[in-house]
Amino acid sequence: MEAGLLIPSPLSLSQLILTQDNLKKITAYKAVEYVEFGMVLGLGTGSTAKHAVDRVGELLRQGKLKDIIGIPTSNLDSHPVVDLAIDGADEVDPYLNLVKGRGGSLLREKMVEGACKKFVVIIDESKLVNYIGGSGLAMSVEVIQFCWKFTASRLQNLFQESSCVAKLRTLGKKA
Ligand SMILES: O=C[C@H](O)[C@H](O)[C@H](O)COP(=O)(O)O
Fold first, then answer.
1. CA–CA dist 104, 40 (Å, integer)
2. Domain with CATH 3.40.50.1360 in the chain
3. CATH number of 2-136
4. pTM of the model as a whole
5. Active-site residue identified among 109, 113, 142, 161
6. 105 to each of 56, 82, 151, how far by Cα in Å?
7. Which family, according to UniProt (predicted)?
């Protein structure tokens, strides 16, 4: 899979006062320039990816894009090859390793993004870290409901030297 990272440059935008959401939107719109007619497209979740979803919708309404098959509107069983996936991330290290899922989506996004030919990650500067875990914020792990306390305890024990605490987050709740 080809991978890419889009970050709006604060230098080129230095004359403007932009909010974090403005930066997310600029990045998302840039990523959507990679979308072509007839593509199978994976669109992720979160406040950055939302701008990309909105932009694709706008271009479809305007007739500037056509015949787009969206995953998960469709699914990987019927469309096992995804031409392009666009999604945000919570942390990105210099080697393009990612932390995802702090917004509550993890497994399905990873499945779609693992099946794509090209994955464009859209972030603002605040997501850049020197190493994974560098933000000091939570690391999401999606588990099945069956014996989740047992799994939480196993996970916490794995990282006990770092004093990590495993906490349950249920569907739709932020970390
Ligand atoms: O669980 C959510 C996804 O992994 C998001 O892509 C990630 O949390 C980034 O979200 P946002 O763009 O809202 O910061």
1. 24
2. 2-136
3. 3.40.50.1360
4. 0.86
5. 109
6. 20, 18, 19
7. Belongs to the ribose 5-phosphate isomerase family.
